[in-house]
Amino acid sequence: MDEIILLKLGEIVLKGLNRRSFEDKLIGNAQRRLRPFGKFRVYTKQSTLYVEPQEDSCNLDGAYEAMKRLFGVVGLSRARACAKDKDAMLKTAQEYLGDRLSAARTFKVESKRADKTFPMTSIQLSQYVGGELDELYPNLKVDVHHPELTVYLEVRDYAAYVHADPEPGAGGLPVGINGRAVSLLSGGIDSPVASWMIAKRGIALEMVHFFSYPYTSEEAKQKVLTLAKLLTPWCGRLMVHVVPFTAIQEELRRKCPEELFTILMRRFMMRIAEKVAERTKSGAIVTGECLGQVASQTMEAMKATSAVCSLPILRPVVGMDKEEIVTIARKINTFETSILPYEDCCTVFTPRHPRLRPLPGEIEAAEAELDIDAMVAQAVEGIERIKIDP
Length: 390
Ligand code: ATP
Ligand code: MG
Hints:
Distance between the termini: 26 Å
Oligomer: single chain
Bound molecules: adenosine-5'-triphosphate, magnesium ion
Structural class: alpha/beta
Shape: elongated
Number of helices: 15
Strand content: 15-25%
Helix content: 40-55%
Radius of gyration: 26 Å
């Protein structure tokens, strides 16, 4: 195999995080993501993660695409291996980076020499290859300060490697390095985006979906599972906890004022989410709530729903416009699925005149009619766990 993938590590360099655990987590995540594409050796050296195919059958295109979605990586490039010889490196640069060399106007060559027995210094090597390329490509001018293209030459133990500037990576922190959270996944646009944003900060997710069969269809559930699947290239393997929610909704409809229905329902979602968090050792609850979109997303409503649980509620899209959320949804490829027209459990029971600002005591009075613990316990008992592999 004469081609490898180089990944530039992210924020670790700036943050006080433990470098070793950052790298170990990243290597583990990379290895799991690479599994479908063949056998690879993965290791770090000087803020770079090396991904080396170990057999000819490795699918390097697939591996590269997977690595683009790996949180913790700020940039990535493919590199071509060649003999540790100045003319071999020059020829490889021409063959491998020909298109970019023809397109750029300014360039420089930067060399690194891990093998100290190599007969030239890195400056001599850069000067030689840079000089030759300058002559070979009339479009190119050397600019050592702000080049459009940098050609990198690395002389390492077993081979030399040639590559160009990295493409942007997924950014963020390796999933799992900052613990675990429960994410409430509906079939809408916002919650997959919220989940993605929190995973990006290094948090492993447990997905929770409230399912109101037969008010919502089997297709609506499948849609949520599809959304979870679309998140796995970023989040890794996911568990979706499907909570049977119909009994609670029916009980609320029987016993509580219709105007409070949405807020009471959301309080049950939070209570159940907290139970799932306990079981999965999660430290927070994530939602796709956004201020002011709908009646249940006023500050007062958020206060009323937050009041029933003690874990922090992370609402990463709270201050975003719909358009900004949609931009991310398109980028992470969840948008087309999110807009499929299946009803969700909230729309089925939406009150005609939802109370925007519940009065003090009103919610407690309504809930006094309910056996909350039994309702929550029964829902938790009925949870179906569905594992979603990348
Ligand atoms: P989304 O686009 O994420 O569905 P939304 O704008 O439709 O959000 P709501 O329906 O009020 O807003 O829901 C707010 C948040 O509550 C959702 O983003 C999600 O995190 C959670 N949520 C709502 N319905 C469900 C459900 N059936 N299962 C799991 N979580 C839900
Ligand atoms: Mg929704």
